[in-house]
Amino acid sequence: MAGHSSRLSIELQWIRRIFVPSTLTLVSLNVPGIPSGFSNAEAKPIQNPVLLSSTTIQQPYDLLRGTIPPTVELSSVPWFGERLEYQVQWGVFTVGTSNLQAEQVEDFNGEPAVRIVSEARSNGFCDTFYKVRDLNESWIHARTFHSLGYSKRLREGQFFRDEWVLYDHARNAYLAKRMDQDQSFQYETGTIPGRVQDILSSLYFIRTHPLRVGDEIVLDVNTKSNWPLVIKVLRKSRVTVPAGTFNCVIVEPFLRQEGIFVQKGKRMQVWMTDDARHLPVHMSVEVFFGSVTASLIKATRSP
Fold this sequence. Notes:
By secondary structure, this protein is mostly beta strands. It has two helices and 15 strands.
């Protein structure tokens, strides 16, 4: 498992975040046909949106203005309010845990956004030779489900990565920042083709779509460069994990950039339940020495 060449990431970067204090609560409207707790009101920004630039933004949290009620659109998606917990294994060895959360909506620079949080942590056994403490976040627009930006803080053995990317869809542009261990940093700007996804948000986006064997889904992804993420639906399968036995479809994303488990990807497959939830219950990725798998332990949903 060790080795700088494979940079094994005991994480679920596609299939991971910190909550800031809630400072804003908007009132939901009582409208017939809208589930309790959901609002059909347009998100009202506290102030004009901040123009994204190196002089105005130090970190994505600068854009957060507190929690707001869920949008009506979220009442129809299978993953909002969800928390997933995984056991991560390298071969026969259990090496850590990971979790995924999609439990709250925030005012993100004047837009309603679901904060997706993914955390990964190696256990005591793995810590002795490859300690992992990863935190990834993605902010997904709560009405149209494209990415508004992402942040990653990776600590994997000797590997260190702190970076974030924010998308300015009105201007088809992005702003990114990367920090090094010596506290030096650099900003970067560039263009995007339109509404894009990041690696983590793409998982949630495809879960809202039918997944039929033979389908090939192509998403516009930006990770400081623009590239097509191709996801193929391979076949049906039945799998048993700690959370139970599930009928699934197996999907394979073809990653050109940093992926899940490994920073430089080999083959990866995801078992998603063959129902409306498309719950990711099992994931497997090839590494230089065997394979790393993540299996669902527990799935809970906020009331």
